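Researcher: Go.
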Amino acid sequence: MPSTDAVLVLAARSRDGGLSRSSAELLTAARRVAAPVAVLPEPVDDRICGELGRYGAERVLSICAPELDAVVGAACHLRPPLVLLPATTAASREIAGRLAVRLEAGIVTDVVGIDRGPEGISVLQETCGGRVRVASTIVKTPAILTIRPGAVVAEPEAGSCRSPAVEDLCVTPASAVRAPRLVRRVPVHPLDGRLLTEADVVVAGGRGVGSAEGFALLAEVARALGGCLGATHTAGELGWAPDHARISLPGNQIRPRLYLAVGVSGSLRHRAAIRGARTVVAVDRDRNAPILREADLAVVGDLHAVLPALLAELRRRDRARSTSTEPSEPSEPSEPAEA
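Model: Structure:
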């Protein structure tokens, strides 16, 4: 049985060392039902501690171990009724399933809403691309919830300037029981270092791109825009893009400021996975492609003509920006005028 009313939240850093957007969303969701306690699978510094407190964390458990072992150790130490994890990637969803087995807990995945009512904690899920909503009440704890990215708007706790207490815990990683062995080597993709679900700009391709060479062009456009490379499930199956780049309900669900879809027909699963995108621009030869109806700006044309022109324009603007910011040479002092 739970020994505390707190909600355990798996937290993570962003690429710049601050609190990730998904972690801020989890803490915001947790505050709706109880006091959040964050578990961070690494040492805690002043910056991350301050940001965790800003979003409502009352305590921070620092556990230097793999994410799954860290959450298991924190849950056994705290024994909370709820554990919240992000549903951002396939790896995080796998952690949730394995955690439920280890804790012998129930699990509700892809949650879009959470609240505490007279009958207990209720959760909301969506299916069929958001057309059907399912409300459930948690009747047995502990329970594991994975929160869909973008479903909860990250909001700092009003008037909060707390500095949460930090507690260092030590757990024995399960991987230490048996020596690891090399299964396979995966070559590093040029954009592997960028987290797709945290990106502000995503450039994605589908079957219409036609080849892996076409995706190399997409990668150049993504770099020029300072964004990430994405792909449809089909393009990933064809081997044109890495597995981590797949955008769909079973894959990554994204919420960038700009989503550029190239050669993407726009299946229901794909359109549901990009619902959080603020601006959608689509390029496709088929004027009847479903993605064009979802786009804020639809371009009907051949991507092999559109993308090189777009890339050339982006590079021209980048050169113009660099030229305009270069310091000008000091002018020669003028000769004094004769009287």
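Model: The CA atoms of residues 14 and 20 lie 4 Å apart.
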